[in-house]
């Protein structure tokens, strides 16, 4: 890993920590009085999700720029010039490290073994990009999924502020969440896997070595299975909200489920 990437990882780690502990409380107090009414455990979750949203917007928009304008990466998806992608991945690695520290410091209220494994696996996979500069196109393509994260977080903010699920803003955000989630995680699957299969048997693919090949393919399969399951749940929830189905029992069940999910959840399956 080059000095530039190490500096970006360290800088983003510190930056996200400052955003969590300083900027988020100040900004949240200014935006809504409801922030100060949250219990301490929810304040931690609130600040964490605000940081998650900022990270998702930075990385997701940077991904789109690379996809549209980085000709070197698009020309050779396995070994193209990874400079911009490595910069974006370094930002994400700094965020993941910050989030792991936050998780460790609040394990009693935010502990989640799946979440921990997700972050460690992501850091392992991104390590290949940062150290060897491999698979820049595919790493960038995967990070585009972060664009759905702000809508997922906004749904949580509405629930924390006790907005009714029939509220217009909640409904609109739910529809936007379903549409964007589908576009950046489901609709892109055929194009993504077509690009993956096109590399099989090529010299570029063989140069990767077995370790990188296995880490790449298995992680992609696992993530797409999860994304499909999550898309089904999101679509079902969106349909119920739009049609007003479920009544009181469904609402109470959803609220109970929301309460049981009070622990930190994985908002970015990059």
Automatic annotation (TrEMBL):
Source taxon at top rank: Eukaryota
Biased amino acid composition, Basic and acidic residues: 261-270
UniProt keywords, alphabetically: Membrane, Transmembrane, Transmembrane helix
Membrane among keywords: yes
GO biological process: lipid homeostasis
Segments crossing the lipid bilayer: 6-29, 50-69, 89-107, 114-131, 170-193, 213-232
Membrane topology: Multi-pass membrane protein
Region (Disordered): 250-270
Residue span, TLC domain: 41-243
Classification via Pfam families: TRAM_LAG1_CLN8 (PF03798)
Keyword Cell wall biogenesis/degradation: no
GO cellular component: endoplasmic reticulum; membrane
Entry's localization field: Membrane
Protein name: TLC domain containing 4b
Organism whose genome encodes this protein: Dicentrarchus labrax
